[in-house]
Amino acid sequence: MSEQEPKKTNPYLRQFLDHLVLEKGAAKATLDAYRRDVEQHLRFLEERKTAFPAQMNGEVFLNYVEWLRGEGKRPTTMARKISALRRFYRYLVREKTFEEDPSRLVRSSTPPKQFKGALDADEVQRLLEATENEGDDALRLRDQAMIELLYAAGLRVSELLHLRPGDFNFQYLFLRTMGKGSKERLVPFHERAAQKIREYMERGRPVLCGGRAADTLFVNRFGKPLSRMGFWKILRKYALLAGITSDLTPHTLRHSFATHLLENGVDLRVLQELLGHSDISTTEIYTHIDQRRMRELHQQFHPRGKKKK
User: Does the active-site annotation cover 302?
Assistant: First the structure.
């Protein structure tokens, strides 16, 4: 095969990728990541004259993992590659390509996810108050609606910026959004956020659109869809006005939403649904916040835990 000819995708990998698209709704970035990790594994087998799938077994898989370690891969990279291959082989077991999963002997080495912090309730309040009297009326109404809604519903910033006016049910206070993997979910929000959104729809958005058609709810001063960078700059401006000096990002409000709900007693499974996490393990990054809060309360109120004055 010449260098100009594209390399054919391994048929087993092709079936696996099709499965991720058709049955799991995987996004392109997810597919590309799986493709890279599995193709690297298959190249390793090919270079060592190991026929796939005939000669693939647990010992060969362990050899591959040791080779990855020898390449000096970071723990997070190792965890991602092993996770991708475990999913690949579990699929092939279900398809009867393998009787036993070759990756079964390798324990998942996923490192604990780092929680990047959340605002406390007072900081959130200051951030929302900073939008009250700042800038042009139409832009102010837009910014109030965006920040209020992001905290009220715990949306990803991409979900926020792709919202359309027709995605809201103001009678029952639910919105419809498309999350990761094009999975639709209904998300509740509260009346204060509904009020800010209605004010923006009625008095702010028409001014910004200037009679031009726009699909997305939130637009820039020229009536065009607002970008992620544009929103980050807006959020950063209000953070400075509110005196918040921590490294605030759009995702911080989603973290704050999750942390505050958990601290106030929401069930972890409910939180998983609200955040649109497909796997409960993703939601569990917030549990240590809840545990920390319980320790603080225990020390504060237990007779033997109180500090002596």
Answer: no
Residue 114: what pLDDT? Answer: 47
Beta-sheet strand order (sheet of 184-188): 168-169, 174-178, 184-188
Would you call 156 a catalytic residue per the annotation?
yes
- Predicted confidence (pLDDT) per residue in 40-98, tens digit: 999 999 999 999 999 999 889 988 988 988 888 777 788 888 888 989 999 999 999 99
| 277 flagged as catalytic | yes
Walk along the chain (309 residues) in steps of 10 and give the mean pLDDT of each run. 54 92 81 92 94 92 87 79 90 92 73 61 89 79 95 90 95 88 84 95 94 92 92 90 81 85 77 75 61 55 54
What is the residue type of 250?
Answer: P
Show the tokens assigned to 17: 């990728």
How many angstroms separate the CA atoms of 88 and 72, rounded? 23
**CA dist., res. 273 & res. 290, Å (int):** 18
Catalytic residue, candidates 69, 104, 251, 306: 251
Q: Which residue has the tokens 């029952």?
A: 172
Burial track 71-81 (b if 16+ CB lie within 10 A, e otherwise): eeeeeeebebb
Q: 156, 164, 221, 237: which is the annotated catalytic residue?
A: 156
Amino acid at 242: A
Q: Do 10 and 82 touch, CB atoms closer than 8 A?
A: no
